[in-house]
Write a structure and sequence with these properties.
Layout: E1 7-10, H1 22-25, E2 28-32, E3 36-40, H2 46-52, H3 69-91, E4 100-105, H4 108-119, E5 127-130, E6 135-139, H5 145-160, H6 167-187
Parallel strand pairs: 1-5, 3-4, 4-6
Antiparallel strand pairs: 2-3, 5-6
Helix pairs in contact: 2-3, 3-5, 5-6
Bound molecules: zinc ion.
Zinc ion is lined by residues 7, 9, 150, 154, 171, 174.
Length: 190
C-alpha cells in the first residue's frame, strides 16, 4: 500500500489567492476540457502524457506522436474528462459542475519548488491537490493514470462535501480509487 501514498492533500491554507509563483507562471495552457484546464511546461510532450495515462483513442496509440498539437490538445482534454468520469463512477459521487486546474511540472524537483513556495518547506511526493486553489499538481516524470485518479478523487470529494472529510479519510477513499484504476488497467493489459 505504500506505493499508493504518492499524494498530499492540502485542505486549508492561509495565503493570498491572487499570488502566483515563477514555477507556475512558466506553465502554458495545454488543453481545456469540461472538468479541467490543463497546464504544462513548455516542452511537455502531450503524446507521451497521453500514453502515461493509458489513453486509448480508436484503439491505438501508435499515431499519437504524428498528430498535430491541436488534435493532441483535444485528445488530452477528452482523456482527462474521461478519467474524471471514471473516478466519479467508482466513487459514485458526481459533481457535474466541477472545473479545476491540473498543473503538470516536469519532475519531482519542480513540484517540490511549487510546494515550497506555498508552504516554505520541501516535498518528497509526486503529486498533490491544493484545495484552496482547486488545483492538482503533478510531476510529469512520475505521472501515472492511478496517481491522477487519486488526485481527481480528492478534488471531487473536497467539492462534494460542504465540509471536506479529514485528510486521513480522504486518503483511504483516494487510495481505493488508485487501486481500482490500477487493477482495471492491468486487466485491460495496459
Ligand atoms: Zn491523497
Amino acid at each position: 500500500m505504500r506505493k499508493l501514498l504518492i499524494c498530499f492533500i492540502v485542505l486549508g491554507l492561509c495565503f493570498c489567492p491572487a499570488s502566483t509563483f515563477a514555477q507556475e507562471e512558466g506553465l502554458t495552457l495545454l488543453a481545456k476540457g469540461k472538468y479541467f484546464s490543463i497546464y504544462g511546461y513548455r516542452q511537455l510532450d502531450i503524446a507521451a502524457l497521453l500514453q502515461k495515462i493509458n489513453f486509448t483513442y480508436l484503439g491505438s496509440l501508435n499515431n499519437l506522436s504524428s498528430r498535430r498539437n491541436n488534435d493532441l490538445s483535444s485528445l488530452l482534454a477528452e482523456a482527462i474528462d474521461n478519467l474524471y468520469s471514471e473516478v466519479s463512477d467508482i466513487l459514485d459521487i458526481h459533481v457535474y459542475s466541477y472545473h479545476g486546474d491540473l498543473k503538470i511540472l516536469s519532475d519531482q524537483s519542480s513540484l517540490s519548488s511549487v510546494f515550497r513556495n506555498y508552504f516554505g518547506s520541501g516535498f518528497s511526493e509526486r503529486s498533490f491537490y491544493l484545495h484552496p486553489r482547486n488545483t492538482i499538481y503533478a510531476s510529469f516524470r512520475d505521472l501515472t493514470e492511478g496517481m491522477l485518479g487519486h488526485e481527481i478523487a480528492h478534488a471531487i470529494i473536497s467539492h462534494y462535501f460542504v465540509v471536506p472529510p479529514p485528510a486521513k479519510v480522504q486518503e483511504v477513499l483516494c487510495g481505493y480509487i488508485e487501486y481500482t484504476i490500477l487493477k482495471k488497467s492491468k486487466a485491460a493489459g495496459r
